[in-house]
Write a structure and sequence with these properties.
single chain, mainly alpha, DNA Binding (I), subunit A, two-stranded antiparallel sheet, binds zinc ion
């Protein structure tokens, strides 16, 4: 199995575990391109790189989150959703180069 295939399988498994939804904004993923590995407890706060601490998020949600806790980022996301309206979904699902594999 190639490296890329492995990464895709990893993404699919992660999405299955999280019902195909982003742990930050709660919206679905429209492509695998925008899926980023999200540490529930950030590594900077001592979060582990193990499956129980890893969820899926959109790349753009991940960027908005920064090092905030998930509870703190909820308000930021709500504001962004309100401001962008319908375009929010396409914004968070914008594809980026595969940043999943590491
Ligand atoms: Zn999201």
């Amino acid at each position: 199995m190639g490296k890329n295939k492995k990464a895709i399988k990893k993404i699919k498994n992660l999405l299955k575990r999280w019902d195909g939804l982003c742990v930050i904004c709660g919206e679905p993923f429209v492509s695998l391109e925008s899926v980023t590995k999200e540490h529930i407890i950030p590594a900077s706060l001592g979060g582990l790189d193990s499956s129980c601490n890893i969820a899926a998020s959109h790349y753009n949600c991940n960027k908005l989150r920064g090092s905030r806790s998930l509870l703190l980022v909820a308000k930021v996301i709500e504001k962004k959703k309100e401001k962008m309206g319908k375009s929010f979904l396409s914004w968070v699902n914008k594809g980026v180069p595969n940043r999943f594999a590491n």
